[in-house]
What we know:
The chain has about 425 residues and is an alpha/beta fold. The protein is about 45% helix and about 15% strand. The model has no long low-confidence stretch (mean pLDDT about 95).
Amino acid sequence: MRMIDLIERKKRGGALSEKEIRYFIKGFTSGEIPDYQAAALLMAICFMGMTDQEIAWMTDAMACSGDRVDLSSIPGIKVDKHSTGGIGDKTTLILAPLVAACGVPVAKMSGRGLGYTGGTVDKLEAIPGFCTEMDQEAFLETVKKIGVCVVGQSGNLAPADKKLYALRDVTATVDSIPLIAASVMSKKIAAGADAIVLDVKCGSGAFMKTAQDASHLAREMVAIGRACGRRMAAVITNMDVPLGHCIGNGLEVAEAIAVLKGEGPDDLREVCLALASQMLSLARKGSPEDCRTMAKKALDSGAALEKFRQMCIAQKGDHTILERPQSLYEKAAVYELAAPQDGWIRQMDAEACGRASMLLGAGRETKDSAIDPAAGIVLCRKTGEAVRKGEVLARLYTNHPDRLEQARRILLESYAFAAEKPDDIPLIYDVILEK
Ligand code: URA
């Protein structure tokens, strides 16, 4: 088999066979197929797409490229969730203890940051002492004991995806629906859960900019999961506006704690309830409506917060942050961004907010940059709200005052103002359930 023939066929819009796809994934992972040929094939896929069957074969080949997690020793239906990534997305910090508090085990492997902001692992590590590296046995034991554990993805889970993603990142081939679907689902399948809920983000701060593309991606991933024997649901949520008010690792943990205390911003609570109701329902706890009521009770009664405390203790994190969440960000200096005019906030560029937050120290500029857990942004006003000139639009937290002006400029440019109140935008566009 020759790689050039595969590239040639895909370039002309043809389909690859199962053998050819497995040859590509195996050869690229082992280093036999060079990056330039892999990049050419990826670019051809970006332009010409893949059939559902090709995507399913590619997902399976990537899922089989490394270790697979066996969760069968944990009783019950194990549920996982995955977000396609957005600014201010701290839902895993809330959902993992929330769903566990409702009696459904959550054994979750999460990633570090992709793009501008930290990932779940970076956020958890903002909690002093919190350990996200555990061997398999300790991970399983923790879930059996307290019902929840969130750790970093092991180095050998879907290594084909790791290598391929690094290449896609530098060859402008990330935003292809077939490639994203295979990438996400290969990791989810290898991570071993019985049921998976996908949070597919849609808008200026997401890979999918339109509801139509988000729906296409969601349906593709639900179909792959079903074909692999998993129970699946996908929720399409808004990412034109950052989720919640906080962007940045320590700030986001503090905001997640507020939601776990039954407080916090409405949009974040609402997205968490929508995802939790699907997770609990896939675990056969009842209809999505009954499960939503169950999740609400767990937030308002303190049961989810208590589960988060148990998770912190089991993973060696400082649980006193539950009483003093401000300790997570008080080491940074705080600066204000004032509204330049009276008016309504017509729209925001969520991605620009992420970029500004990264500049302040909350994300990685390069793969090896260090993250400052105290850095980030609190958005005091968001799309759909009115402001008066001089009122505080946002607070910027940083230990890099030299980067402040640039971050302030990017953040200010991310706001667009109007004289009239803008139309409301939906927070949840759609829920896609397995057939
Ligand atoms: N998240 C992933 O895990 N993979 C992609 O390709 C895009 C987002």
